[in-house]
Amino acid sequence: QKLFRFSLRITSQSKFLTIEPVAIAAGSLAQVHRAVLKNHQTVAIKIQRPGIREIVERDLEVLEALANWFSRDKIGQAYDLPGLVEEFRYSLLGELDFHREARNTEKLRQNLSNSRFWKSGQVVVPKVYWDWTTDCILTLEWIEGIKLNQVDLPEHRKKRLATLAVQVVMQQIYLDRFFHADPHPGNFLYIGDDTQDRLALLDCGMVAMIDPRTQSILTDLLIGIVYERPKIVTQAIRELGFTRLDVDLRSIESAFDRLLRRFYTRPLTEINLAELLNEALRVPRENNIQMPGTIGLFVKTIANVEGIARQLDPLFPFVEVARPIVEQAIRLRLFGTELWQDAVQSSLYLSRLTTQFPQRFEVLLDRLERSELGINLGWRLEQEFLHTQQQGMNRLSLAILSMGSLVSGAILQQLLGQDSVSSPLIEMVSQGLLLSGIGLMSWVTIAVLRSF
């Protein structure tokens, strides 16, 4: 404490006009004080506790050793414990790097400034004062407000506030792919008035970023849960986790079917999404599917914001509020701003697959001939086998080309439906691609039917 007070005094003398000695918030890593800059601007400064980094790094080494030890156990094998510790390490050390936290704050401020789900200015993230920010000191805009679990508002306004808090978090996860991973009541402030309900999101040290593939799978997972589709949930869990070849997918699908029916016999207001997600993750654990460490932060974030919403509204319909965001995520996946990039990547993949297939098939035949795969072909059947496989390769190549033409034509047609894109050449190319794709697919279908 003496070392911390000394650091506080040095900070005050060098950068600020005054710093209130009593912290307005305190944690194990840092304390937050109200301060005044030398230009008389009131700010909030977050000051890191001296020597805390060394303590945290030692504790993380112990935690990593324990994770490696318990990962040998049968129960530990159901989780990616080293991956979970690595994710925790990244988040915790990120909280100790105030420059990183400042960048996180700016990114969240930009992402949440506008949305189709709330009005401009209704969600606020504090401004960063970079000239007064260092690795150990973070200076932010001072925001006056009330913690969400302490607001005294009419019931209908509490319900709107709960909806807004959930929308803020769900947009970060499912639309922005960058989310605040610690949305507890102390990090949400009510800053509204009689005319409008407004929220402020604070303390952006613990954040998580989701890669496009994981975001797509998590969207499928929520689609399956929201629309009660156990097959979609099963497929999402299989793609999200690490499975063995002998996993019984039908058994897993039946387990999800029973789980969803058990939950959806309740009214929507009584469905606890965090509980449902925890129950859903128990199924892969019991079937030896190891889930990645990032899924822990995802479930924790959902549980935190759902807890806030139910404090404000005990009958909060989480599934109903989540549904529009899921639908928006689907629209962005199909027709979003990254459509051209996805189309180019798909075209490159199809092109590479088509050009490399003959060489890979030749290698496969060579290995078959030398019995490297444990299969010995008789000499009399070799020519017939080669002829049959060559026909199959040709049909597969044509099927890939037809699918590529159909997908490319459909993408161009969708772009032509937008106001900003209008070109007779593009229209002619898109129609040509669609017609050629349909023609090739028809030819392949007839050839396959004749082979039976």
**How confident overall, as mean pLDDT?**
78
Order of helices and strands: HEEEEHHHEEEHEEEEHHHHHHHHH
Quick one: how many beta strands?
11
Largest sheet: 5 strands, antiparallel
Beta content comes to 5-15%
Radius of gyration: 28 Å
Tally of alpha and pi helices:
14
Q: State the low-pLDDT regions, or none.
A: none
Q: What's the N-to-C terminus distance?
A: 83 Å
Principal-axes shape call? globular
Assembly form of the protein: single chain
Summarize the amount of helix as a percent range.
55-70%
* SS-based class: alpha+beta
Q: Could you characterize what this model shows?
A:
The protein is of the alpha+beta class and 452 residues long. The chain contains 14 helices and 11 strands. It has a domain at 339-451. Strands 1, 2, 3, 4 and 6 form a 5-stranded antiparallel sheet that branches. It has a 4-stranded mixed sheet with strand order 5-10-9-7, with helices on one face. It has a two-stranded antiparallel ribbon with strand order 8-11. The longest helix is centred in the C-terminal third of the chain and has 38 residues, at 379-416.
Strand-helix topology:
Layout: H1 2-15, E1 16-19, E2 25-26, E3 30-37, E4 42-48, H2 52-70, H3 81-96, H4 98-112, E5 123-124, E6 137-141, E7 146-147, H5 155-176, E8 178-180, E9 188-190, E10 199-201, E11 207-209, H6 212-226, H7 230-240, H8 249-264, H9 273-286, H10 294-312, H11 318-335, H12 339-369, H13 379-416, H14 424-451
Parallel strand pairs: 5-10
Antiparallel strand pairs: 1-3, 2-3, 3-4, 4-6, 7-9, 8-11, 9-10
Helix pairs in contact: 2-3, 5-10, 5-11, 6-7, 6-11, 7-8, 8-9, 9-10, 12-13, 13-14
